[in-house]
Design goal:
Blueprint: E1 10-15, E2 26-28, E3 34-38, E4 52-56, E5 59-61, H1 66-82, E6 87-93, H2 99-103, H3 115-129, E7 133-145, E8 148-151, H4 159-164, E9 168-172, E10 175-179, E11 184-185, H5 189-202, E12 205-208, E13 211-215, E14 218-229, E15 236-246, H6 253-256, H7 260-283, H8 297-301, E16 311-318, H9 325-338, E17 349-351, H10 353-377, H11 390-404, H12 416-438
Parallel strand pairs: 1-5, 1-16, 6-15, 6-16
Antiparallel strand pairs: 2-3, 3-4, 7-8, 7-11, 7-14, 9-10, 12-13, 14-15, 15-17
Helix pairs in contact: 1-3, 3-5, 11-12
InterPro entries: Kinesin-like_fam (IPR027640), Kinesin_motor_CS (IPR019821), Kinesin_motor_dom (IPR001752), Kinesin_motor_dom_sf (IPR036961), P-loop_NTPase (IPR027417)
Domain Kinesin motor: 8-341
Family: Belongs to the TRAFAC class myosin-kinesin ATPase superfamily. Kinesin family.
């Protein structure tokens, strides 16, 4: 397995509550960071399968509330985003393991609200407390269904509306964006929550044997944060984003009894998650220089959200029952690989061109005033630093001609502008003379 970097993606595991916990096969370490799995081998069986696993993670959430989960995972990501760092919180796991519950929770239960509504609440609380900064918040909600992208914040009245959306993925200086995706301004927590509920209404939901309300698509709720200092006249500001990712559940078709449309959906889901696993495997391997981000819409959209310059956290959701142990091991293996992905979050500083020009003009004015004061002190108050007039340019050209012809011994230099102009004129004349002699 690749060696884990000191700066890496953080990975936590959350268990789905169940009355049929596989006590004989699954246990937790006392450090609350280790999961041990023991597979009972069949009698007289001879094979090369591993029977015991020990997965070491950044934390295990077992019988943990929504509030505790967010406090452990989400608060730091939100706080650092307000400071200019990109952040990602991603839920991964099999169908029915509790990903959507962890990410969004239940709209009808305030206590059981998930990471997204809690992140919005914490975000606006922090903004209101930071009086020295001005913040602009915009929100987007993207769905990837059967490898097609859909803007969930646009009105969708029929399947044709879904297909007619012209969304494509672009890149600029290492940053990924979706062309055509709408970003809606949210000036308050209430406005932001309304956008979340609007997007949830448009989300694709399906039903099968493991989950009556199964998410049949990958969804990315993006909070774009622009921060400017009120006290400073600096031309720099920060633009950062939080991607809150609810991945569709991986599933084994034989176990879910999927047919028809649901089977086709599952095929696309499993395929995109397979590409995601390949990308993570490549990112965690220092010897591999290429990652297959463009293999699917999901991996391409998440290109700047998995490690690298992004503060990335993954929650691996597992269903700790005996019948789901194979999927649990698969999820924990992926979690272990994700922990090896290096992450070096950096501040996304942007220069405001309008403010930069204003600052340059102000600095130029101060320098001119300082230079004028200096000239006055050394009895050079008559010198001008304004652009040269036509008459002055003519005199400089005349002096250059006389100097080249040997009729003038030296130039009278008053400022750098004259030096530049005389140098240009002299070079031009010498070039013309050289051409004249050659012809």
């Amino acid at each position: 397995m690749p060696q884990r970097s000191s700066n890496k993606v953080k990975v936590y595991v959350r268990t789905r509550p169940t009355n049929n916990f596989a006590l004989s096969m699954l246990s937790f370490g006392q450090d609350n960071r280790t999961i041990c799995i023991h597979r009972i081998a069949s009698a007289n069986a001879v094979d090369n399968k591993i029977n015991d696993w020990a997965f070491h993670l950044d934390g295990v959430f077992h019988n943990v509330s929504q509030e505790e989960t967010f406090d452990s995972v989400g608060k730091d990501v939100v706080d650092r985003t307000l400071e200019g760092y990109n952040g990602t919180i991603m839920c991964y796991g099999q169908t029915g393991a509790g990903k959507t519950h962890t990410m969004t929770g239940f709209a009808e239960s305030y206590q059981n609200r998930g990471i997204i509504p809690r992140a919005l609440q914490h975000l606006y609380q922090e903004i209101n407390a930071r009086q020295d900064f001005s913040y602009s918040i915009r929100i987007a909600y993207l769905e990837i269904y059967n490898d097609q992208m859909c803007d969930l914040l646009r009105t969708l009245n029929s399947p044709s509306d879904y297909q007619q959306q012209q969304l494509s993925i672009g890149e600029d200086s290492g940053f990924v964006y979706v062309k055509g995706l709408s970003y809606r301004i949210a000036n308050s927590e209430e406005e932001a929550l309304n956008l979340l509920f609007e997007g949830e209404t448009n989300r694709t939901i399906g039903q099968h044997i493991l989950n009556k309300q199964s998410s049949r698509s990958h969804c990315i709720f993006t909070i774009l944060v622009e921060c400017r200092s009120i006290l400073s006249s600096d031309d720099k500001y920060t633009v950062s984003k939080i991607n809150l990712v609810d991945l569709a559940g991986s599933e084994r078709l034989a176990k879910t009894n999927s047919e028809g449309v649901t089977k086709r959906e599952a095929t696309f889901i499993n395929k995109s998650l397979s590409f995601l696993e390949q990308v993570v495997l490549n990112l965690s391997d220092k010897k591999t220089n290429y990652s297959h981000f463009r293999s699917s819409k999901l991996t391409h959209v998440l290109k700047d959200s998995i490690g690298g310059r992004c503060n990335t956290v993954m929650i691996a959701n597992i269903w700790p029952e005996l019948q789901h142990m194979e999927e649990t091991v698969s999820t924990l293996r992926f979690a272990s690989r994700m922990m090896c992905v290096p992450a070096e979050p950096t501040v996304n500083a942007v220069i405001d061109p309008v403010k930069a020009i204003e600052n340059y003009k102000r600095e130029n004015k101060y320098l001119k005033e300082e230079l004028a004061l200096h000239n006055t002190l050394v009895n050079r108050s008559g010198i001008s630093y304004e652009p040269l007039s036509e008459q002055q340019l003519y005199e400089i050209e005349n002096q250059c001609r006389r100097f080249i012809d040997g009729n003038l011994d030296e130039f009278e230099i008053q400022n750098v502008r004259q030096v530049q102009e005389r140098t240009n004129s002299s070079c031009a004349m010498m070039f013309k003379n050289t051409l004249a002699h050659r012809t």
